């Protein structure tokens, strides 16, 4: 991001606009605000997700309500993750600690648009991101490094669109955890989709074997569609992804 201050100001403006419009906005409107920032598609997706977490409806889409699953116990980090966290925490060791009086004053200054307060709060809450990531590390296939990076991004975005509130500390800590959980949920959904695709490819291959036996026979997409009770377009997509000719 070429200009962090400009980004934060635009994010605040988008939040204000959406809130005055009944917490609704379009992707086109968001893209217009950030047109000059040169954000990548992945960064823009982070902006969309952040706005949804603030209760903003984007083109009618909102962040789904969090599931009410029982809390899961954190699992041990792998040796590689332990080493990453150790080195990362060492990099934060030079940050001067804060007391409650300073924290309260910083949040007041942040609400007034003080950029130095935002910078100081960002560095002060980086250790909270690490703590949250370790507490939420409940799945082996979600790496703590990804969790920390997502938590840092969500911390940055949250402070960038800050509005005054009484429970500033608790709310910010909750937002950090919410951002990490959203990333974990997105990864789980992605894996589920990947596993579903693999299963569909296997099913398609099995159907071809059943229809052809040991003979080298060709079947049209339409024939496979009727046999598997799948849409022609879906079979065509599977064949393309599997690298098969149609």
Q: How would you portray this structure in words?
A:
With 246 residues, the chain is mostly helical. The chain has 3 domains: 4-58; 79-190, Rna Polymerase Sigma Factor, Chain: A; 195-241. The protein is built from 10 helices and 2 strands, in the order H-E-H-H-E-H-H-H-H-H-H-H. Helix 6 crosses helix 8. The longest helix is centred in the last third of the chain and has 45 residues, at 168-212. The radius of gyration is 24 Å and the shape is extended. Mean pLDDT is 79; it is low at 65-70 and 242-246.
Features:
disordered C terminus, two-stranded parallel ribbon, extended, mainly alpha, 246 residues, Rna Polymerase Sigma Factor, Chain: A, 3 domains
In brief:
The protein is mostly helical and 246 residues long. It folds into 3 domains: 4-58; 79-190, Orthogonal Bundle (Rna Polymerase Sigma Factor, Chain: A), CATH 1.10.1740; 195-241. The protein is built from 10 helices and 2 strands, in the order H-E-H-H-E-H-H-H-H-H-H-H.
């Amino acid at each position: 991001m070429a200009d962090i201050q400009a980004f934060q100001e635009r994010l605040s403006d988008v939040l204000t606009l959406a809130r005055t419009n009944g917490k609704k906005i379009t992707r086109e409107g968001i893209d217009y605000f950030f047109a000059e920032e040169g954000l990548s598609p992945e960064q823009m997706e982070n902006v969309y997700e952040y706005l949804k977490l603030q209760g903003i409806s984007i083109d009618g889409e909102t962040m789904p309500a969090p599931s009410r699953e029982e809390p899961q116990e954190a699992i041990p980090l792998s040796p590689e993750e332990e080493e990453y966290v150790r080195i990362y925490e060492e990099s934060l060791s030079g940050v001067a600690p804060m007391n409650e009086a300073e924290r309260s004053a910083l949040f007041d200054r942040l609400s007034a648009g003080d950029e130095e307060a935002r910078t100081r709060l960002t560095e002060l809450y980086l250790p909270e991101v690490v703590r949250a990531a370790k507490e939420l590390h409940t799945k082996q296939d979600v790496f703590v490094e990804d969790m920390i990076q997502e938590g840092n991004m969500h911390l940055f975005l949250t402070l960038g669109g800050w509005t005054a509130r009484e429970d500033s500390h608790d709310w910010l800590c909750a937002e950090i955890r919410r951002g990490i959980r959203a990333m974990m949920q997105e990864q789980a959904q992605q894996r589920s989709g990947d596993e579903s695709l693999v299963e569909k490819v296997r099913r398609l291959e099995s159907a071809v074997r059943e229809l052809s036996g040991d003979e080298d026979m060709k079947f049209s997409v339409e024939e496979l569609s009727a046999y598997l009770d799948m849409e022609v377009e879906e079979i065509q997509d599977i064949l393309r992804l599997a690298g098969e000719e149609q």
